[in-house]
Amino acid sequence: MKLAHLKIVRVVVSLVFFLLTGLLFLGISDLSQRFADLILILQFIPSFLHFLIKPFHVAGGFILIIILTVLFGRVYCSTICPLGTFLDIIIFIKSKIFKKKKFKFKKSHNILRYSILAITGISLIFGTVLIVNLFDPYSNFGRIFSNFVRPLYITINNVFASVLEDSDFALKPLFFKGWKAEILLYPIIFIIVVTWLSVKHGRLYCNTICPVGSLLGLFSKLSLFKIVINTSSCKQCGLCEKACKAECICNDTMEVDFSRCVSCFNCFRACNLNGFKYKFSYSPKNVILPTETDISKRNFIFTTSAFVFGLFSGLLAQTKTIIVTKASTIRENKKNEVLPPGAKSFEHFTSKCTACHLCVSICCNQVLQPSFFELGAASIMQPRMDYHIGFCNYECNDCSKVCPTGAILPVDLSYKKRIQLGKSKFIKDNCIVITEKTECGACSEHCPTKAVKMVPYKGLFLPEVKEKICIGCGACEFACPTMPYKAIYVEGNPVHVTADKPEEKQYILNVTGKQLQQNALKNKMEKIKQEQDTKQKDDFPF
Amino acid sequence: MDRRNFLDSTLKTGLAIGSIMAVNPVGTLLAGQTDYDLVAVKGGNPDAMFDKAIASLGGMKRYVKQGQTVVVKPNIGWDVTPERAGNTNPLLVKRIIEHCYNAGAKKVYVFDNTCDNWEKCYTNSGIERAVKDAGGRIVSGSNENKYHEVEVKYGKVLTKAKVHELILESNVFINVPILKHHSSAKLTISMKNLMGIVWDRRFWHSHNLHQCIADMATWRKPDLNIVDAYNVLRKNGPRGVSKADVENMKSLLISKDMVVIDAAATKLFGMEPDDIPYIKIAHDMKVGNKDLSKLNINRIKM
Question: What is the predicted ipTM?
Answer without folding.
Answer: 0.84
